[in-house]
Amino acid sequence: MNKKLLCAALLGGLGLAHSASAQEFDDRWYLTGSVGYNFQDDDRRTSDAPFGTIGLGKFISPNWSVDGEINYQNPGLRSASSVQGSNPDLNWSQYGISFDFRYHWLQDGRTWNPYALFGVGYQRSEEEFDNFPSPDSPGEREDGNFAAKVGLGLQGTFTNRVAVRAEVALRGDFDDSSYAASGSQDWAGYPHNQSESYFTDLLASVGVVIPLGPPPVAPIVAPPPAPVDNCADRDTDGDGVNDCDDRCPNTPAGTTVGPDGCPVPVTIDLRGVNFDFDRSTLRPDAVAILNEAIEILRRYPDLRVEVAGHTDAVGTDAYNQSLSERRARAVYDHITGAGIAASRLVGPTGYGESRPIAPNTNPDGSDNPEGRARNRRTELNVQN
């Protein structure tokens, strides 16, 4: 049979394997065994014969496996009864060992995955030959030689602890002293090269791969840790205090807060911004105090205040109302003149004598100049 046509037929048939699931990387040691047919090189003048192998191997990476195996075949000499002196009962057998590297093309979704085979080894031949008329006939030759192998195949997954392997390969046996191949006599119908220094045999086989030990257990992958809720990086209410430290997380926008995120009263102390009796003109000492209040307003740009003016109880209500408004206007104009936006100020508002902070008279009804002086004032009342 033509070996090239046989290779093509076998590989074509193997290519019909259906798809299902991909072989996964399994690094257990495994036993291998196969049976097949050895199509002998014609120049050997031996018969084609079945062969068997047994071996041990493992995957050394997701794609590479290495096997060591021994093989045996007993082809025997081809029958040539038409040739004078030929003896079809003469023995001719082979056995050897090889180390085979296979590269597997794995793909998810396939039951069968193709591979390429590269192997090196040692083949030993035991040959009997007709040594007539010598009394030592038949003669014997035993010799071992280097061998190399290349091939292609398909391997299935480890279903029920067994994988199936189908393979075709060419093995080069570098035997340069074969008696049958170097004989001077041409056997009828079996031409050969008498100077052959190596032989190329075609091997077609089907085998099994049996892993040793329990299948590997997939490592338990812990779920990724939940994202850390880093409150130190958040300021939900936008008050400038991170959520870890903010004890008042829902502070309205623009509220002045302390280090704990809670609203704090901002007191703008205008004590000393008092007016002379029946006057609305700012005194020099009052201007200095107002300038300090202006710095506070600059430090807190979201702060809004009401400019309020007050009087003592001397005079009519109407007069005192007008006087308090003038006093509030004097403070208002000074603050806006210093660059504070009018949108941050409420007023100016006059309250007349209606909101005293000190008694205008003593308990006995007599005048209380000191109390009246405190009531002649302006205030900046914080609105947020």
From TrEMBL:
Location relative to the cell: Cell outer membrane
Q: Does the keyword Hydrolase apply?
A: no
- Entry keyword set: Cell outer membrane, Ion transport, Membrane, Porin, Signal, Transmembrane, Transmembrane beta strand, Transport
InterPro entries in the record, alphabetically? Bact_OuterMem_StrucFunc, Beta-barrel_OMP, OMP/PagP_B-barrel, OMP_bac, OmpA-like, OmpA-like_sf, TSP_type-3_rpt
In terms of PROSITE patterns, this protein maps to: OMPA_2
Task: Reply yes or no: does the keyword Cell membrane apply.
Answer: no
Give the span(s) annotated as Disordered. 345-384
**Principal localisation:** membrane
> Which Pfam families does the UniProt entry name for this protein?
OMP_b-brl, OmpA
Recorded GO molecular functions are: calcium ion binding; porin activity
Swiss-Prot/TrEMBL GO biological process terms: monoatomic ion transport
How far does the signal peptide extend, from start to end residue? 1-22
Q: Per its UniProt record, what CDD domains does this chain match?
A: OmpA_C-like
Q: How does it sit in the membrane?
A: Multi-pass membrane protein
Per its UniProt entry, which superkingdom is the organism in? Bacteria
Bias class Basic and acidic residues marks the residues at 369-384
Q: Where are the transmembrane segments?
A: none
Q: Which GO terms describe its cellular component?
A: cell outer membrane; pore complex
Q: Which PANTHER family match?
A: LIPOPROTEIN YIAD-RELATED, STATOR ELEMENT OF FLAGELLAR MOTOR COMPLEX
Protein name per Swiss-Prot or TrEMBL: OmpA family protein
